[in-house]
Amino acid sequence: MAEDGHKSVFVTKYGGTALDPEANGQLQLTEATHIVSNSIDFEQYNDAIDMMLPVVASAWITHSLNRGKLAQIRPFSPDPRMIFSSVNLTCADIPQGDKEAITGATLALGGMECKDLTRLTTHICALTMDHEKCKEAVAKKLRCKIVLPHWFDDCFKLGKKIDETPYLLPNPPILRSLGVTSAGASSKGSNGPNGDQPADEDTVPIPENQDLEGATTPLPNAPPNLGYRSNLTVFQNKRVLLAQDINIGSRFRAVVIELIKRGGGRIVDDSSVDACDMYICHYRDGADYVQAAQARKDVGNLAWLFHIITNNEWCSPLRRLLHYPVPREGIPGFENFVVTLSNYGGEARIYLENLVVAAGAKFTKTMRMDNTHLITARDNSEKCEAARDWNIQMVNHLWIEESYARCEVQSVTNPRYTTFPGRTNLGEIIGQTFFDESKLRALYYMRGSDDNQEGGANDTSTGRKATSSKKGSRKSIQLDEEPEVLADVSEVQNGHIDRDDGDLSTSSEAEPEPKSKDSKTTLSRQAPRNATNTSMATPSRPRKAGQSADKENEGTPLIVGSASRSAKDKALTKLHGLAPDIALYEKERKRSTRDLKAPWGGKRAADLVDKEKLEAARKKRGSPDADGGEQTGSEDGERPAKKNRPSLPPVQMRVVLTGYQRWVHHSSKEETERRKLRSLGIQFVQDNQACDFLAAPCLVRTMKFLKTLARGPEVLNAQFITDVLEKGKLLPTEDYLLRDKDGEARFNVVLSKALARARANRGRLLWHVVVYCAADIKNGPESYREIAEANGAIFKTYRAHSGTTIRPVTTSDEDSQPAEPVYLLTSAAPAERALWPKFEQMARDGNMLPRVVAPDWLLDVAMRQEVLFDDHYLAENFWSKK
C-alpha cells in the first residue's frame, strides 16, 4: 500500500494480504495484485502502470467492505486525469443518440454507467424532474445529483470536471442565466448584455483551488514553513544537487541546505550529477540538466523542492507546471504576445502571471490596444467587452497551461480554449494540467549530442568567464589604488611583467574577450615574429586543458603594436631598479594597525632594507620561497610561520547511539573517545537529526531508539563502536547488523520488516492521525509527543478543562467513509479515568471513533512501524490485567 497504511488492518482482517515493503522501502510490485494510494504521486507509479497493476484509492477498500465483495476498480482511480472516476451515471429522459454519446465519453474518462437507479448511483442525467428515476431518487432521499446534460457537454469540452451546482435540477441556475425558464421556454431579450439577465450574474465568487498550493511561482522568495511538524524525512537517503543557476543569496542557500540535511539528505558537489538523486535548477538547459534528465533523476526547481519539504512527501515535478525548470528563452512563438487577465484572483492570478512570463510573453495588468490575448475565467467583465471591441483574442487559462505543458503555442481556434460555461468561474479547475514528458524529452534533453555538448560548453565557458572577470576586477581595484606600483617584486625577479608605462598590456581587461575562434586567431597574429627574442618580456606558460582564453591572457600579456626590443629591455631594467622601492611599499601597506602606531624610519627602515636584500638573495639561491609565495610569519622574520591545525576527515557515518554503557559515569573518557571516533569519520548526532545508522546493544523502547527508527536507518550492534575504538579503524558495518531474537520475541516485531516499513513510510506512518495524551500521564506527555510526531502524527495534550478541539466532519463525509479513529493515551490513575467519558463524547460529536488506549499502543506502533490495533490496547482492558 503506497499510503493510508491503517487500511491494511481491514485488508488483513478480511482475508487479504498487506505486503510489507522491500528492504530498501520500495513496494513489492511483483507480488502485488492491487496498489492502494489516494494519489499518483509516488515514485513507483509509472512502474506499476507498465506492469498493468491497478492503482485504487483507499475508498475502494471501504466500498468493498460495505458490499461484502470486491468493488469495481474503475470508479476508484486516483488519477486526476480520469475526471469521471467517481461518477456512476444513469440516464433518464435523454434522447438515445445523446445518451450513447454521454455514457461513452463518461466510460472513457473513468466513470461507470448503470441502467437502473441504485444506491451507488452518483449522477442522474435528465432534462426534467418528471422521469421515474428522478422521482424515485427524491422519494428515497438518495445522495445522487440530478444534472442537465449540459454539464457533461461542458466537462467534455474542457476536459475537466467542473462543479455541478449550476446544472442541478429542478431549478438549474444556468438556465436562469441564459434567460430560459425551467419549463424550457426562452425569455425575450435575455441573450444580450442589456437583456433580462439576473442581477446576480456578476456575483459568481472566485473559487479557492488547492492544486496551486506551493506552485504559483518557480522561484520562491522565502523558505518553506513547516508549521507544527517537527519531523522531516522526505530526503532520507537522497542526494541533492543544487545548480548554480538558482539565483538566491548565500544565507538563503544555507537555509535550503540545512533543510535538506535535516530531512535526511546529502548535498552533492556541483560536478557530480551522476551521484545525485535530485537535481534542482532554474532553467531547463545546460549539460548538467540534460545529463540528469536523461538519467531519469528527479529534476525540479526550487518551488518543487519547497513543496515536498512543506508536505514532507515526494511528488512528481511534472505534476505542476511551475515545479519544473523554466525555458530560458521561453516557448517559441510567445515572444510576440502581450497578455492580460480577467476574472482570476488570489493565487490563481499570481500563478497565471508567472506562467505567462515563464512562457516568454509580456504580461500587462491593464487592458491596452497592443494586447494580443485576454485570459479570462468567465465571459463577463469590462475587459471581455473591450476584447470584443478591439478584436483581441479571448481564451481561458487552459490555452496558456497546455501551451506551456506541450512546449508549443496551441491554436486558439480549438473550442476547448474558448468555452466559458455560464455561472461557472473556471478558476476552480486551474492548475490541473500535467507536463507532456515526451515533448520535454524531444525538445530539451534528447536532441543530438552536438547540441548537448554545445550547451555544456556554453555553460562551462560562462562559469569560467565569471571567474576570470571577477579576478580581473580585483586586480583593477588594486591598480587604481596604487598607481605607482608597477609590478610585484616576486614577479619581476621571475621575469613576469604585468604592467609597463605603455608598451605592454596589463590585464585581460585591456583587450576584449575572445568570443570565437576567429578572434583568437586575430590575437595570435599580433605576437612578434621573433618570439625567441621576446621570451624575457613575455614568458610563456603551459595552457591547461579546458582553460579559457581569458585566463591565458591574464598570465601572458599580449603585445599591442610593434614594440621594439630596446623598449622592452628599457622597461625591464626600469622595473628591476624599482624593485627595492616596490618591496618597501608592499611591506608598509601590509603592516598591522599595531605597527602603524610605531615610528618609522632611521635604523628600523634600514634594517628592513637589509632584510629584504637577504630575502631576495635567498630566493635566487632556490629557497622554498623562491616561487614568490607570500610568507605567513611576522614582519621581522624571527618567529616561524604558524602551522595550520589538521582538518578533520569528512564524515562517513552519522550515528545515533542509545543504550551504550561504556561511557556511563565516565564523562572524560567519553569526550576523548568521541574525538577519536570523529577523527575516523564517525560523527554522533542527535535523535532529531538526519542519520545513517542507529547503534544500540539490543532492541530497546527508548525514546531515542523509537524516534530514530522512524527514519529507517541501518541498526547496528553497539559493539561496533567498541571494536572501532579498540582497533583504531573503521570496520565493515555488515558484520555488526543488530540481531536480537529475544528482543524481537519480547516486542513481537521483526526488525528487518520494521526497517523496510520505515523506509517506505518516511516518517508518515501516522500522517493525519490525531493522538491525544493525558496531561498527568506517567513520564509526562512530552516523551510521547516526540515519538508520535517523529511518525507524523498530530499530537495534542488533553486536560480536564480542555474544550472541544475536534472539528466535526460533514454528514456526507461520514456516509462515504468510515469514521476515522482518534486516540487518547492514558494510564489507570483515577484523575485520568474521569477524562475518558468526556473524550469519547467529544470524539463522537466530531463524527470520529474514540479509542482510549494505553501508551503501549503508541510504543508498539512505533517499534513495528505498522498501524495496528486490538482490543487489548483499550485502557479499560489493558489496565485491568495489571
TrEMBL record:
Biased composition regions of type Basic and acidic residues, renumbered to the chain: 607-617
Region (Disordered): 180-224, 449-568, 607-651
SMART domains xrefs: BRCT (SM00292)
InterPro entries to which the protein is assigned, alphabetical: BRCT_dom, BRCT_dom_sf, CellCycle_DNARepair_Reg
Signal peptide range: none
SUPFAM superfamilies recorded: BRCT domain
Domain BRCT span(s) in chain numbering: 10-78, 79-169, 334-406, 653-738
Pfam family, one: PTCB-BRCT
Biased composition (Polar residues): 180-194, 521-538
Protein name in UniProt: Regulator of Ty1 Transposition
Lineage of the species this protein comes from: Eukaryota, Fungi, Dikarya, Ascomycota, Pezizomycotina
